[in-house]
Amino acid sequence: MKLQQLKYLLAIVDNGLNITAAAERLYTSQPGVSKQLKLLEEELGMQLFVRKGKSLSSITLAGHQVVSRARLIMKEVESIRTVTSSLYCDDDNSHYSSRAPQSQLR
């Protein structure tokens, strides 16, 4: 499962289950969004949407659960970006060392 797939999933939901509109919003192709949705559903082993022909008509129960958790994950991703951005936007004296203490290296 990739963050990109979750991002695409949320875009589909936020655009009224319209994959073309989701692709336009994401500045990518409709076939690319469809493919990532298919890969996500295959990995999860279930459909996230009810389909009528080539269109998505509604979200399945499993889909609602995945969408809910995907929103939480994407909020956390944004939180991480915000925190790391603020750490390195300050002056050079505010950088943190990622080195482990010598006692942990033995």
In short:
GO terms for molecular function: DNA-binding transcription factor activity; transcription cis-regulatory region binding. With 106 residues, the protein is mainly alpha-helical.
Question: How many runs of DSSP E, i.e. beta strands?
Answer: 2
Strands side by side in the biggest sheet: 1-2
Mean pLDDT: 90
Overall domain count: 1
CATH overall fold name: Arc Repressor Mutant, subunit A
Which series of helices and strands comes N to C?
HHHEEHH
Could you describe the 3D structure shown?
- It comes from Woeseia oceani.
- This is HTH lysR-type domain-containing protein.
- GO terms for molecular function: DNA-binding transcription factor activity; transcription cis-regulatory region binding.
- With 106 residues, this protein is mainly alpha-helical.
- It has a single domain (1-75), classed as Arc Repressor Mutant, subunit A (Orthogonal Bundle).
- The radius of gyration is 19 Å and the shape is elongated.
- The protein has a two-stranded antiparallel ribbon with strand order 1-2.
- The longest helix is centred in the last third of the chain and has 29 residues, at 61-89.
- Helix content is 63%, strand content 8%.
- It has helices at 3-14, 19-25, 30-44, 61-89, 102-105, and strands at 49-52, 55-59.
- The chain starts with a helix and ends with a helix.
